[in-house]
Amino acid sequence: MAIARKTGAGKTGAKKTGTTGVDCHHTGETCCTRPSSEQVKHFLHQAEELCAERKQRFTDLRKQVLKLVCKYSQPVGAYTLLDDLRDEGRSAAPPTVYRALDFLQQQGLVHRLASNNTYLACAHPQTCHQGLFLVCSSCGHTQEVHKQGMLQAARRHARDFDFLVEHAVVEVSGLCGQCQGHKHG
What are the residues whose beta carbons fall under 8 Å from the beta carbon of 122, sequence distance 6 or more? Predict the structure, then answer.
């Protein structure tokens, strides 16, 4: 099934969803890496439930920002989200958007990519985990990967230097399969 999705640059493109876009093969829960509108609705409901369990306020603004993040097929910047909020008739300032994103990040609903200061919806908000992201340096496609061995190795190496890892997000840049084909084809 093809769905219209915004790209990080604010353009609309068609992306194909498959079984990995519906349910995560790790948890069986909805994942928001390439969601259809029905999946976004389920993801937002899941976010509401997680916040309620954690006794956190999932305000209309926070929900709206998360919904906007889910519309993009690539990580999106705060100012693009701010423009989207304004397009929807909401008056907001940059600090408002950043506070909403900070909250969503603290709740594990979005991840922040430090290399380009963008945000993407977490594929597995129901489980506490560290992020490993494969970021295509050509098209910007970003994939959240769960390989605990890599992050556990980083923790072990950190201990060798008497360093305690509290949080780790690993960004690996390279070329996705599609862009490799364009460069070598």
Answer: 32, 108, 109, 110, 111, 131, 144
CATH number at residue 100: 1.10.10.10
User: Which residue range forms the structural domain that includes residue 98?
Assistant: 1-125
Q: CA quadruple 60, 66, 71, 76: dihedral positive or negative? A: positive
Q: Whole-model pTM?
A: 0.73
At residue 174, does pLDDT exceed 70? yes
Q: Please tell me whether residues 11 and 77 are part of one structural domain.
A: yes
Boundary of a domain, candidates 96, 125, 154 = 125
DSSP string, 85-115: HHHTT----HHHHHHHHHHHHHTTSEEEETT
Provide the sign of the torsion angle of the four alpha carbons 71, 131, 42, 86, taken in this order.
negative
Per DSSP, 84 falls in state H
